[in-house]
């Protein structure tokens, strides 16, 4: 386990203040199968929280509940966005969750392949743009409020295209971009919704080591800007390097929750990942 | 030569009307992947509302010149839009999670309801209207045959092109159009980005109905005779046009409409008027057999 973790593992001080996301007793059943069972944890505000666990542990299911893709069977998911009263996400329809401040990416990329990279980012700013157009009528008539709003939207889109190093691909259809660029574009699109919490489902999957490094840097930048991140990731190098907090699931149950260093030494976690033969593995 | 020229003019103006209706079919298909079988009747409703508006305005003495026609158009578009919205609410939205054929059946049911509603409320007899716009331009003359471009035909072509231009800007340049395209490609993802997909789908039906209303008004002005049953044939022909152009493709719908209009007109002119519908529907069969994606149909984008 220690071989996977590089030298930059110093624990960052935990910022005070309420968590951005609070999950209480979350349960998700599909017919007779309980994919997630009574999971409770909190993701710190301004932190990167990683959600790890072996395949089939229920990470993506939990993610889908938080982002409104599924409606949980039971439990509470509360978003504490600074400056507004807490929102209970499990009650909201999908598009309201996005407006409440949660954005996500997918394990299998879900860009709009037929639209350009720039259009993909503008779609993410649909709410404010729509309001400025008077539901599309103003845009046709060329009313004054709309061009200003659109300029602002394009500026924000350009900022994220620059941050993700995709500026020269702005007018190419998203479906034509190479895999690594599509991954970055998905993160840029999520950021264009101006989320308080960014949820990433295996952002490093399929990336080469150099691209993984770029991704880690991008995520740290996003955190510096004040957006909290919830992350599912199998690349332990990335997880241990950038996470402030690691939550471990196995068979739908939470088995560990702590700093990367704590979780790495946790016997249950090692058992879950490597089988029951703990003695042998725990030895340095 | 002159005769062919006249048929070309007639075919284009008829094709424009089919094209406008076909756009409604193809838009709804694009966004929810289903054919709106009540769309032909929306066109019929649009024509009836135009007739009502003409009569109301004539009573008030306001029905003169282009301003009158514009008022008729706006009246018909506005109310037909409400019909489009209602069709989605009644026949489609409650069945969205249901099996695939259920909304088609409810839409066919709604189509029958609309026809019977108009039949009962407006009477079953054919409704003639006195010609509002008369005359035309003499384009050419050959051996005593005068090729005429009627003012109504100019009106149809002009209004259709203007409406399609506005519509194209709406789809390609505005946030609403982007949202419609996003819903088309991945509705769930669009919703996760904060797009109200229900409202976007509703607006798609409203816009489709508005275009059908424009077609209805044009039909009334050009042919001057309507009844409660015109929606069926026009609807099926516009559907043929949408399939020929490639269902889901907006330029394809207009192209398909033009082709169907031209084929029908030339067939009537050179072969037999009785078999003109057979010609149009043979095209549907041939397209489905030999060119299922249509002329401008998109390749299915594989979702990863």
TrEMBL record, chain A:
GO molecular function, one term: ATP hydrolysis activity
GO biological process: D-alanine transmembrane transport; L-alanine transport; L-isoleucine import across plasma membrane; L-valine import across plasma membrane
A GO CC term attached to the entry: plasma membrane
Pfam families for this protein: ABC_tran, BCA_ABC_TP_C
Entry keywords, A to Z: Amino-acid transport, ATP-binding, Nucleotide-binding, Transport
Listed Gene3D superfamilies: P-loop containing nucleotide triphosphate hydrolases
Domain ABC transporter: 21-276
InterPro entries per the UniProt record, alphabetical: AAA+_ATPase, ABC_AA/LPS_Transport, ABC_transporter-like_ATP-bd, BCA_ABC_TP_C, P-loop_NTPase
Protein's UniProt keywords contain Nucleotide-binding: yes
Superkingdom of this protein's organism: Bacteria
Annotated family: Belongs to the ABC transporter superfamily.
Protein name as it appears in the record: Amino acid/amide ABC transporter ATP-binding protein 1, HAAT family
Origin organism lineage: Bacteria, Pseudomonadati, Pseudomonadota, Alphaproteobacteria, Acetobacterales
TrEMBL record, chain B:
UniProt GO BP: D-alanine transmembrane transport; L-alanine transport; L-isoleucine import across plasma membrane
CDD domains xrefs: TM_PBP1_LivH_like (cd06582)
Family to which this protein belongs: Belongs to the binding-protein-dependent transport system permease family. LivHM subfamily.
Subcellular compartments: Cell membrane
Membrane-protein topology: Multi-pass membrane protein
Protein name per Swiss-Prot or TrEMBL: Amino acid/amide ABC transporter membrane protein 1, HAAT family
UniProt entry keywords in alphabetical sequence: Amino-acid transport, Cell inner membrane, Cell membrane, Membrane, Transmembrane, Transmembrane helix, Transport
Main location: membrane
Residue ranges crossing the lipid bilayer per the database entry: 12-35, 42-63, 69-87, 150-171, 201-222, 279-297
Organism placement in taxonomy: Bacteria, Pseudomonadati, Pseudomonadota, Alphaproteobacteria, Acetobacterales
Highest taxon of the lineage: Bacteria
Gene Ontology CC terms: plasma membrane
Gene Ontology molecular functions: L-isoleucine transmembrane transporter activity; L-leucine transmembrane transporter activity; L-phenylalanine transmembrane transporter activity; L-valine transmembrane transporter activity
């Amino acid at each position: 386990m220690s071989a996977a973790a590089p030298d930059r593992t110093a624990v960052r001080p935990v910022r005070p203040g309420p968590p951005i996301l609070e999950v209480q007793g979350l349960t998700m059943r599909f017919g007779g199968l309980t994919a997630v069972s009574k999971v409770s944890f909190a993701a710190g505000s301004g932190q990167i929280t990683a959600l790890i666990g072996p395949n089939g542990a229920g990470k993506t299911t939990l993610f889908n509940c938080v982002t409104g893709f599924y409606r949980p069977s039971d439990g509470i998911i509360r978003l504490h966005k600074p400056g507004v009263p807490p929102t209970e996400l499990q009650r909201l329809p999908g598009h309201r969750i996005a407006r409440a401040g949660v954005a996500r990416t997918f394990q299998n990329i879900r860009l709009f392949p037929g639209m350009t990279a720039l259009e993909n980012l503008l779609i993410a700013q649909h709410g404010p743009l729509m309001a400025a157009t008077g539901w599309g009528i103003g845009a046709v008539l060329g009313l004054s409020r709309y061009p200003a709003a659109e300029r602002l939207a394009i500026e924000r889109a350009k900022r994220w295209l620059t941050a993700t190093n995709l500026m020269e691909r702005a007018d190419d259809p998203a479906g034509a971009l190479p895999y690594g660029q599509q991954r970055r574009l998905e993160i840029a699109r999520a950021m264009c919704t101006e989320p308080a919490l960014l949820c990433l489902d295996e952002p490093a999957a399929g990336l080469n080591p150099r691209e993984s490094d770029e991704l880690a840097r991008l995520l740290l930048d996003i955190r510096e800007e004040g957006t909290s991140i919830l992350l599912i990731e199998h690349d332990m190098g990335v997880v241990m390097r950038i996470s402030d907090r690691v939550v471990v699931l196995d068979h739908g149950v939470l088995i560990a929750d702590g700093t990367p260093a704590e979780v790495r030494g946790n016997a249950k976690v090692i058992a879950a990942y490597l089988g029951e033969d703990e003695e042998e593995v725990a030895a340095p | 030569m002159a005769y062919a020229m006249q048929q070309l003019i007639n075919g284009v103006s008829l094709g424009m009307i089919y094209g406008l209706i076909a756009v409604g079919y193809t838009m709804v298909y694009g966004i929810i992947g289903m054919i709106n079988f009540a769309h032909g009747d929306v066109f019929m409703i649009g024509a009836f509302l135009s007739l009502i508006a003409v009569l109301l305005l004539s009573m008030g003495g306001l029905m003169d010149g282009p301003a009158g026609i514009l008022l008729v158009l706006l009246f018909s578009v506005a109310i037909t839009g409400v019909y489009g919205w209602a069709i989605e609410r009644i026949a489609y939205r409650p069945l969205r999670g249901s099996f695939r054929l259920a909304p088609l059946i409810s839409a066919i049911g709604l189509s029958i309801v609309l026809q019977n509603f108009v039949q009962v409320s407006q009477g079953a007899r054919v409704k003639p209207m006195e010609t509002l716009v008369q005359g035309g331009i003499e384009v050419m003359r050959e051996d005593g045959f005068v090729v005429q471009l009627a003012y109504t035909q100019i009106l149809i072509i002009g209004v259709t092109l203007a409406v399609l231009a506005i519509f194209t800007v709406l789809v390609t340049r505005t946030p609403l159009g982007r949202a419609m395209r996003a819903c088309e490609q991945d509705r769930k993802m669009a919703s996760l980005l904060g797009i109200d997909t229900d409202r976007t789908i509703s607006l798609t039906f409203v816009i489709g109905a508005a275009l059908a209303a424009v077609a209805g008004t044009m039909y009334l002005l050009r042919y001057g005779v309507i009844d409660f049953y015109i929606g069926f044939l026009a609807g099926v022909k516009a559907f043929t046009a949408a399939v020929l152009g490639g269902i889901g493709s907006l330029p394809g719908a207009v192209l398909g409409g033009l082709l169907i209009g031209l084929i029908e007109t030339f067939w009537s002119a050179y072969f037999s008027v009785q078999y003109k519908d057979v010609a149009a529907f043979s095209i549907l069969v041939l397209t489905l057999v030999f060119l299922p994606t249509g002329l401008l149909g998109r390749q299915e984008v594989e979702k990863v």
